[in-house]
């Protein structure tokens, strides 16, 4: 009679072990940046092109309600684009690990499965913060100035970091559901463009068609950009909508929804994809 060996179920990793394993995966992700710095360049170039094209080439065609400086107005939107630009690289990296068998090698190690995805997001968050620092330096060079104290300015950048991390989980989810690189690049580019321009990042929402305004009002980018402008003392144009007039509440609702949905779906999909 053949004996049956029972494999005990995998127990949840202690928080300390999960943190260490996640940081190890993040370190691997950062090490690859030295070999392929194009990922960082790509994250910087998208906002830089927006600053040059919209802030200089088309500055005569764009204006801010009240006659405020447009370059100062648009910088919060440019900074938010850094977070959006990280969606594609994260999705590609997750899909490549699944296709290349790296996840199978991780499964043979005594590590918690969530640490793989956490490591990806933490490593890419560090890359995104570097990109945000570079874009901020360029923004200062192009004329952007905050009008509030250091604590408020820091709070604005902290909010952008939270937004960036939420967008990285959007990239994780995209990479788990679509392992085709061409599809990922197309979808990530489309998401970046739609979230950027269906928002108040570069123009007031009240200049959009009436049927698009509710979408733009509740776009997480609009909430984050509005609250960041308020913290920095930069010009704002809320359009009088509820999300615009209550930016902090809109940020909490929209980012919480994005984060909870993408994390739960990503972890569930990863368990089935790696089983």
UniProtKB/TrEMBL annotation:
<dbReference type="InterPro" id="IPR000412">
    <property type="entry name" value="ABC_2_transport"/>
</dbReference>
<feature type="transmembrane region" description="Helical">
    <location>
        <begin position="70"/>
        <end position="96"/>
    </location>
</feature>
<keyword id="KW-0812">Transmembrane</keyword>
<dbReference type="GO" id="GO:0140359">
    <property type="term" value="F:ABC-type transporter activity"/>
</dbReference>
<dbReference type="InterPro" id="IPR013525">
    <property type="entry name" value="ABC2_TM"/>
</dbReference>
<feature type="transmembrane region" description="Helical">
    <location>
        <begin position="117"/>
        <end position="144"/>
    </location>
</feature>
<feature type="transmembrane region" description="Helical">
    <location>
        <begin position="38"/>
        <end position="58"/>
    </location>
</feature>
<feature type="transmembrane region" description="Helical">
    <location>
        <begin position="150"/>
        <end position="177"/>
    </location>
</feature>
<keyword id="KW-1003">Cell membrane</keyword>
<feature type="transmembrane region" description="Helical">
    <location>
        <begin position="184"/>
        <end position="202"/>
    </location>
</feature>
<comment type="similarity">
    <text>Belongs to the ABC-2 integral membrane protein family.</text>
</comment>
<dbReference type="GO" id="GO:0046677">
    <property type="term" value="P:response to antibiotic"/>
</dbReference>
<keyword id="KW-1133">Transmembrane helix</keyword>
<keyword id="KW-0472">Membrane</keyword>
<dbReference type="GO" id="GO:0043190">
    <property type="term" value="C:ATP-binding cassette (ABC) transporter complex"/>
</dbReference>
<dbReference type="InterPro" id="IPR047817">
    <property type="entry name" value="ABC2_TM_bact-type"/>
</dbReference>
<keyword id="KW-0813">Transport</keyword>
<keyword id="KW-0046">Antibiotic resistance</keyword>
<feature type="domain" description="ABC transmembrane type-2">
    <location>
        <begin position="38"/>
        <end position="270"/>
    </location>
</feature>
<dbReference type="InterPro" id="IPR051784">
    <property type="entry name" value="Nod_factor_ABC_transporter"/>
</dbReference>
<feature type="transmembrane region" description="Helical">
    <location>
        <begin position="247"/>
        <end position="267"/>
    </location>
</feature>
<dbReference type="Pfam" id="PF01061">
    <property type="entry name" value="ABC2_membrane"/>
</dbReference>
<protein>
    <recommendedName>
        <fullName>Transport permease protein</fullName>
    </recommendedName>
</protein>
